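ok trying again, last paste got cut off:
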Amino acid sequence: MKVVHVVIGGDVAGGQIIALRLARGAVEAGHDAVFVSPSEGPFLDLVRDAGIPAHIVPVSGVIDPRALVRLVRVFRAERVDVVHTHGHFAVNVLARVAGRLARARVLSHMHIQNAFRSGLGRRAQIAIDNATARLCFSIVAVSDATRDDLVRQGYPARRLVTVHNGIEPAPDVSPVRLAEGPVVVEVARLAPVKGQHVLLNALARVEASVVLVGSDLERGGAYESDLRTEATHLGVSDRVVFAGYRDDVAALLAGCDVFCLPSFAEGLPLVVLEAMAQGKPVVATPVGGTPELVVDGETGVLVPPGDADALARALTELLADAPRAARMGEAGRARVLAEFSAAAMVERVLGLYADAA
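nice, full thing came through this time. structure:
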């Protein structure tokens, strides 16, 4: 069997990492894998380093006949059996249609709920997305919350299945600290939805430093500039480290005191699993599938999205109570090892492929 994974782009992000782990798992099981991406980037370097071929097919929008034709050609030339999408609206729609035209079976992997344009065109986008979802033999949601959202949107409930993200056993790494004193780390692309501005506001009431790991992929540095200005305005700029993209995230997580993810929307955040695997307590918001990972009061603390006061209290209490933070970290690590392994995730998805054969 040959599986083509169609990803959202060439940058390294959670959905792409899951796609690569699934592709490696398929290869280890004796199958073939290939990737298609609308753009080049560091993620495709990881794909090629793994010995998996990759094609670039630019996508300008959902009504892009050239992209559709090129996708069909790639799928036919590669003689793929399964088209496994990990994209946004346009990529998903085109890959689903192209997959069926190439006589392949189609599976869509939904890493977060859909986001559509506001105003004119929204209803049309939703209708197109819902219609092409019915071309899939199965639709994987990374959390029950994501599955429920997709059912409400209009996806066929009988084809939706929850497969939680999984990770490899936590690596034994030497901790890395980029600031002095108590350190709070957030790992996420710099974007309003990830809540970095809320964390900066909370920091004004917390005796700690914050390390923001991630790049401004959406606004080309403009949002990072806004955050730096906000940090200066709040008087905390000397306690904020903008670390950018890092390939030593495990070491940074191992070196922090608390991991924080104050997002406004999530699917099933991989980095929360990675922080828990490093034995770190998590302060996050109960959005998307995060409550399916973080047990409030047991493996971390959940606070309302956008509530800087509640976030400051949670961080202050954990930083002031090392034994409690350690207990939460240990409980989180045990939970990840028992319930969120990459091997179990791969086995479940390979089973879906086999059932549809």
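cool. The mean pLDDT is 96. The chain has 13 helices and 13 strands.
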